[in-house]
Amino acid sequence: MIRVALVDDQPLIRAGLRVLIADTPGLELAGEAGTGAEAVRLARETRPDVVVMDIRMPGMDGIEATRRITAEAGAARVLVLTTFDDDEYVYGALRAGASGFLVKDMALEEILAGIRVVAAGDGLIAPSVTGRLIAEFAARPEPAPARRPVPGITEREREVLALVGRGLSNGEIAAELCISAATAKAHVARLFAKLDARDRVHLVIIAYELGLAGPPR
């Protein structure tokens, strides 16, 4: 059972999502909040698996609430669901620790699938903004490979992180480095632990911030 908390300052939006969750096997409502501050308290009190988070709310916004929720040990994963797909909100949400970013005009089935994807530990971004993110990265000059070791990880893990940043799957990483798929998976798992990354989306962000990755494939 995936326990879901709903955070939105519009009661009608919450009501619609509440009905959707109630009618979906495997999902359970953990609680609701109408502001970012209420969301932080709700996450601490109910410990949901996923928080479906709006961005623009009175007082503390969804980005700051996401940052506070994901900073705590054993924190819920945050799926941002908003009317606004502005790039500033996308970058802000992902840097704050969100595991996914969807927009409210998506089909209900896609929103439900997004909740399950995030609960499973993966990351996702709405197709309507993925293209812009790739174009943004592709427009930047490709950084030179980092020669200094990244603190806390081995040289091989640094190579794996660079390939994750390019968008390669575990199987593709294995082929690129001439290692087994199981070894590639183990390297990625160690990167999650060593870099405190919540999912693959955040490994990609870390790779870019460290100058290890060029434009995504």
Concise structural overview:
The protein is of the alpha/beta class and 217 residues long.
Low-pLDDT parts are none
Shape: elongated
Helix content: 40-55%
For the biggest β-sheet, the strand order reads 2-1-3-4-5-6
What is the residue-mean pLDDT, rounded to a whole number? 82
Report the β-strand fraction as a percent range: 5-15%
Domain Response regulatory: 3-119
Keywords: DNA-binding, Phosphoprotein, Transcription, Transcription regulation
GO molecular function: DNA binding
InterPro entries: CheY-like_superfamily, NreC/VraR/RcsB-like_REC, Sig_transdc_resp-reg_C-effctor, Sig_transdc_resp-reg_receiver, Tscrpt_reg_LuxR_C, WalR-like
Can you put this structure into words, describing what you see?
It is a single chain. With 217 residues, this protein is α/β, with parallel strands linked by helices. It has 2 domains: 2-134, 3-Layer(aba) Sandwich (Rossmann fold); 141-209, Winged helix-like DNA-binding domain superfamily/Winged helix DNA-binding domain (Arc Repressor Mutant, subunit A, Orthogonal Bundle), CATH 1.10.10. It is built from 10 helices and 6 strands, in the order E-H-E-H-E-H-E-H-E-H-E-H-H-H-H-H. The chain has helices at 11-22, 36-46, 62-70, 87-96, 108-119, 127-139, 155-165, 170-177, 181-195, 200-209; strands at residues 2-7, 27-33, 50-53, 77-82, 100-103, 124-125. The protein has a 6-stranded parallel β-sheet, sandwiched between helices. Strand 1, helix 1 (11-22) and strand 2 (27-33) form a beta-alpha-beta unit. Helix 3 packs parallel to helix 4, helix 7 crosses helix 9 and helix 7 (155-165) packs across helix 10. The radius of gyration is 18 Å and the shape is elongated. 35% of the residues are buried.
